[in-house]
Design brief:
alpha+beta; Threonyl-tRNA Synthetase, Chain A, domain 2; 36% helix; 28% strand; binds zinc ion
Length: 633
């Protein structure tokens, strides 16, 4: 927050060491902004009228936006006719949209990057200047920056600010680093096309993406992870391992699970069903379409319509494809009168839903149009909410731990206390539910942040993001309390007092969409699935045809232990071993004349390498144990 310098006990115009200013502002800041420029500890600054503490995230954004300016500066000095669009900081970096007559190519990026280094090393001071709109129009007209003129037109008020460094000037709100010398660790990454203002009737610009960090270490780590992410791309591995596909004749965003993918899904579903049974859930099934009426009662037609597919007419009634399972579970609850003795009721379903997503945003298994949720709804009394949420948290954390996700970001979404009338449900019930969620989080012993105003209108929620093997966060479990649907559907139970009460409803999806979770697993494991879900657990490779008989015996034995396997005969041995590695088969058995003689098999692990020789029975038991433990490779 920007403060008046006086108000924090500092004198405008005076010289200060930045760390002394930070001491006045608060401990969680890494720098300050004054006069529209970022200053870091170790620098001395002549303080302006206002001062603002800057967090690490904000500082990084400022650095990246400054790097975007530096890039534009470099492009302008290399390509005279270049015209600038916009150049914001984005998650993980920045971009700048630039118009040039001659096409910018990947090769151009090298030159631009070199020029950027030169300009950074020239240690150009960055200056902010406020101009009247007229002066700004004159300035940017003289530079031929026609896009900037359009931007100036859109700015309210009579003044605009510009930032200068050397002979470069850009229309900008700022803030920026105070000197180009701060920009040391950056990289230009890629280019794509972008229409000016996203309008396909307007000019096409080149969008140049890049990133920047404060340290070389951070930059290297990011670039390494970027490479890793590319290698792990679930679409690529999905093709390689024959896991799933998307077919144009079927339609975008609709997933075909191939046999290999289906094995993984089935194993996860079996596990999922078992743990839910243990936790007292009951399984239900519901249809894929329902009359428009249902969605009117649930309210989805009011606030969720743009995510739903258009209605279909049948015998003078209209039906809609379901985007959610909730109203069905509500109707199962309502199918008979309920007593407090039955609560909590926990209905679970691997429910397939369809939601409209624009074709432009569809992405492999991550953004799809049809998917299956590991959905469940808990109906309980107010007093039971805390215990229920505690159990759900425990189940969720266990489930993610199993797949190697220990790093979580937990958010507790509560009401905006200043805007209570935005939400349905009484005050005391909200307070009770928010408290219940908070207590459940405390009981789980996990750190979390409270996000005020982030609750849905119908109730507070817990949202968990999980960190994968290369540091990216993915949407994980969500637990939402709902005061709305019980009311809309007139849900009741008979209490101890013999009177009717309204149950609380908790929505929860732990894996989320099975499709998206599958993408996460593919990338998390880079295709090296743990043995218990690996589609092919063992590949048997007899060296010559003479070992085929023995190989068959080995296969039969392993099959008795329910090990999934395949064999590979024929081509050269080295090729077959490499192929097994490419197919990411956890175990490979090589069988030659000696193994036949000894009655053993030579075992090779895809990640750990050679494990030596062992008897088939011994191997089978070892694998069963690994499967039972659901261990990682
Ligand atoms: Zn700027
Ligand atoms: Zn629901």
């Amino acid at each position: 927050m920007r403060m008046n310098s006086h108000d924090v006990g500092l004198n405008p115009g005076e010289l200060y060491e930045v760390s002394d200013i930070i001491k006045k502002l608060g401990a969680n800041f890494v720098g300050i902004v004054t006069n529209g420029l970022l200053y870091l500890p170790g620098e001395r600054v002549a303080l302006g009228d206002t001062v603002e503490g800057i967090t690490a995230d904000e500082a990084l954004d400022i650095l990246r936006h400054s790097t975007a300016h530096l890039m534009a500066h470099a492009v302008k000095s290399l390509i005279r006719d270049a015209k600038l669009g916009i150049g914001p900081a984005i998650e993980n970096g920045f971009y700048y949209d630039i118009y040039t007559k001659e096409k910018i190519t990947e090769d151009t990026l090298q030159l631009v990057e070199g020029k950027m280094r030169e300009l950074a090393e020239a240690r150009l001071p960055v200056q902010r200047q406020v101009l009247s709109k007229d002066a700004a129009i004159e300035l940017f007209s003289s530079l031929g920056e026609t896009f900037k003129l359009e931007l100036i037109d859109d700015i309210e008020g009579d003044e605009v600010s510009v930032y200068r460094q050397g002979d470069f000037v850009d229309l900008c709100r700022g803030p920026h680093v105070s000197n180009t010398a701060h920009i040391k660790h950056f990289k230009l990454l890629s280019i794509s096309g972008a229409y000016w203002r996203g309008d396909e009737n307007r000019e096409q610009l080149t969008r140049i993406y890049g990133t920047a960090f404060w340290t070389d270490e951070d930059l290297r780590e990011y670039l390494h992870n970027l490479e890793e992410a590319e290698k792990r791309d679930h679409r690529k591995i999905g093709r390689q391992l024959d896991l799933f596909s998307i077919n144009e004749d079927i339609g975008p965003g609709l997933i075909l699970w191939h046999p290999n993918g289906a094995i993984i899904r089935k194993e996860i579903e079996d596990y999922w069903r078992n743990v839910h049974l243990e936790k007292g859930y009951q399984f239900v099934y519901s249809p894929h379409v329902a009359r428009t009426r249902l969605w009117e009662i649930s309210g989805h037609l009011g606030f969720y319509k743009e995510n739903m597919y258009p209605p279909m007419e049948l015998e003078n009634q209209t039906y809609l494809v379901k985007p959610m399972n909730c109203p069905f579970h509500v109707q199962i609850y309502k199918a008979k009168t309920r007593s407090y003795r039955e609560l909590p009721l926990r209905f679970a379903e691997l429910g397939t839903v369809y939601r409209f997503e624009r074709s432009g945003v569809l992405h492999g298994l991550l953004r799809v149009r049809g998917f299956t949720q590991d959905d469940a709804h808990v109906f309980c009394t107010r007093e039971q909410v805390e215990d229920e949420v505690t159990d759900i948290m425990e189940l969720a954390l266990d489930m993610y731990r199993l797949f190697g996700f220990e790093n979580l970001k937990i958010e507790l979404s509560v009401r905006d206390p200043m805007n209570k009338d935005k939400y349905v449900g009484e005050d005391d019930v909200w307070e009770l539910a928010e408290k219940a969620l908070e207590n459940a989080l405390k009981r789980a012993g996990k750190e979390y942040v409270v996000a005020e105003g982030e609750a849905k209108f119908y109730g507070p929620a817990i949202d968990i993001k999980v960190r994968d093997a290369i540091g990216r966060y993915w949407q994980g479990p969500t637990i939402q309390v709902d005061f709305n649907l019980p009311r809309r559907f007139g849900m009741k139970y008979t209490g101890k007092d013999g009177r009717e009460h309204e149950p609380v409803m908790i929505h929860r999806a732990l894996l989320g969409s099975l499709e998206r979770f599958f993408a996460l697993l593919i990338e998390q494991y880079s295709g090296w699935f743990p043995l218990w879900i690996a589609p092919e657990q063992i590949r048997i490779i007899p060296i010559t045809e003479e070992q085929l008989g023995y190989a068959q015996e080995v296969a039969d034995k392993l099959r008795e232990f329910r090990i999934r396997m395949d064999d590979d005969t024929g081509s050269k041995l080295g090729y077959r071993i490499r192929q097994a590695q490419m197919d990411k088969v956890p175990y490979v058995l090589v069988i030659g004349a000696r193994e036949v003689q000894e009655g053993l098999v030579a075992v090779r692990h895809g990640v750990k390498g050679d494990l030596g020789k062992m008897g088939v029975e011994e191997l089978a038991k070892m694998l069963r144990e690994e499967i039972r433990q659901r261990a990682h490779l």
